[in-house]
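Example S7 (structure tokens).
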């Protein structure tokens, strides 16, 4: 089969999909819609993947670029003649494919496209419905994504839901949490408003005042950098916070294993891959009480939930976890077990191949 994989940017998730597709024996072409700011993935494309040169992929893509990109996409489709196109997010890459008239299309929701973008305004709402109406199959990573896709007109039987999953051989448990004199929290999300990193910073300041042995590691970077540093500086806890920057994928498992708790204050998520990676490393989690997180975190079993957007609630949850540190090892084992049962990337990838079979059958 000749497959065109068309994504917004080259991210860790794209690398995971493309690496798995490279092993299928299919001929896989990769098309990148845009290139935004700093690199989101430091590993090269798998050698078997053929990257397509075209009008996009060199910088940010705006609405006014649409006609030019659509024209060149039609050229690409004519030259490659793929048997199937897998494209996402819905209102960007998949929308362009839908506009081109190409079929069959397997559209891929990245979570934020349905949770946030689809309701942005009338145009985004229309683009969402237009794309789904012209998709043979849509894949998503959580029940909330399935529900939202249905609300925009996608038939339930044409939705394939599976959490992308984690590499359980690379993300493995290390020393059990809660066994050191200090207590370390790990945040891996980008420094953007959607991920609530300011909530984490404010909560840490409050909790650290009551527990001086508390430490925070904040990976990544982003537009909220100055806000974060100001909150932490004014809270007089700067020496208790580590900012390693954007770490390589090879180093990431070490950060999970060296922490006691994974925390995320994201305001919007489907299935969070970083949450699954933390669970695979045997780390309990404190995460915002939103639908995507509720599918994975069972309070008192493998972590805790706190009221979305509330620094007070997060601080209280952190202190509660510290008071129960003797139970963290058992909770970490539960987290790993859940990851093994439901978040095994190697097993979950088969659902994507099933989605492809469904799309090809619909064309025939």
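Recovered sequence:
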């Amino acid at each position: 089969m000749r497959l065109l994989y068309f994504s917004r940017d080259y991210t860790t998730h794209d690398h995971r999909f493309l690496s798995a597709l490279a092993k299928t024996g299919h001929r896989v072409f990769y098309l990148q819609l845009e290139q935004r700011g700093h690199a989101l993935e430091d590993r090269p494309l798998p050698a078997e993947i053929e990257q397509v040169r075209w009008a996009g992929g060199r910088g940010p893509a705006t609405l006014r670029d649409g006609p030019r990109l659509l024209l060149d996409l039609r050229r690409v489709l004519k030259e490659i003649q793929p048997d199937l196109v897998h494209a996402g997010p819905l209102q960007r890459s998949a929308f362009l494919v839908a506009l081109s008239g190409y079929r069959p299309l397997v559209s891929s929701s990245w979570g934020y496209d349905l949770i946030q973008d689809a309701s942005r305004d009338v145009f985004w709402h229309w683009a969402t419905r237009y794309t789904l109406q012209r998709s043979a199959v849509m894949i998503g990573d959580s029940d909330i994504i399935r529900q939202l896709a249905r609300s925009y007109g996608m038939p339930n039987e044409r939705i394939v839901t599976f959490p992308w999953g984690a590499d359980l051989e690379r993300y493995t448990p290390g020393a059990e949490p809660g066994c050191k004199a200090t207590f370390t929290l790990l945040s891996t999300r980008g420094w953007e408003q959607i991920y609530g990193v300011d909530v984490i910073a404010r909560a840490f300041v409050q909790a650290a005042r009551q527990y001086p042995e508390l430490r925070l590691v904040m990976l990544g970077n982003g537009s909220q950098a100055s806000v974060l540093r100001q909150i932490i500086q004014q809270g007089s806890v700067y020496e208790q916070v580590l900012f390693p920057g954007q770490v390589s994928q090879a180093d990431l498992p070490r950060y999970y294993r060296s922490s006691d708790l994974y925390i995320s204050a994201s305001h919007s998520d489907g299935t969070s891959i970083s949450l699954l990676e933390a669970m695979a490393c045997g780390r309990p989690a404190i995460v915002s009480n939103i639908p995507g997180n509720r599918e994975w975190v069972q309070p008192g079993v493998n972590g805790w939930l706190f009221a979305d957007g509330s620094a007070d609630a997060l601080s209280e949850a952190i202190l509660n976890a510290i008071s129960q540190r003797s139970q963290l090892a058992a909770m970490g084992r539960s987290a790993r077990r859940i990851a093994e049962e439901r978040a095994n990337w190697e097993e979950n990838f088969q659902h994507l191949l099933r989605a492809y079979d469904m799309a090809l059958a619909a064309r025939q």
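Notes on this example. The first strand starts at residue 2 and ends at 7.
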